[in-house]
Specification:
Length: 195
Amino acid sequence: MASNKVKFKMMIKEIAFEFEGDYEQGRQLQQGINNTMQGLANLQNRSMGLPEPASIAQTKLIDSRSVEPVRRRRKKRTPSVNPNEGVESTTETSDNMMPDSDAETNISSAGSEMPPRRNSGVSPKTLLINLRKSGFFGQKRAIGEIVNKLHTDGYPMMEQSGISSTLISLCRSQVLAREKNEAKKWVYAQGPNEQ
């Protein structure tokens, strides 16, 4: 008489997975890992012919938690006067900032030194007002022409999506005016107000 013998050995000492990137992509990867672990646990049931749980999502095999992205506040720059030189300088303060263990050394967890963040110092609004003052909006201009002019003037990072809301804001304050051309595209011209 033959007996149905079953012998299993499953050994998982440590599984480590590290990810750095987009929040949504991280959530999808986390769900995939949870499903994979569920599948490993249900492998024994499937091989023995036992019914699987109704839904993998309903049974919780491993304890995992979603991690919300950390929002950090920017450092405020405040002017200070050096009494020795009489020259105004800027110092950075960190009022109401989240604690950051690497803030003092400016070193990431990977061990590489990160360069300090630079600010161009020029906002899209300032750039567009300067174009208006220079007479650029004396003729009707499409947003593509405006972006090309900014690129020519040395601001290659300015894109249509970065200046479109600023253009609308300047139109509302009547610094610029806009209308649709024959091609049903918005064109911008000089408005009645200076600023």
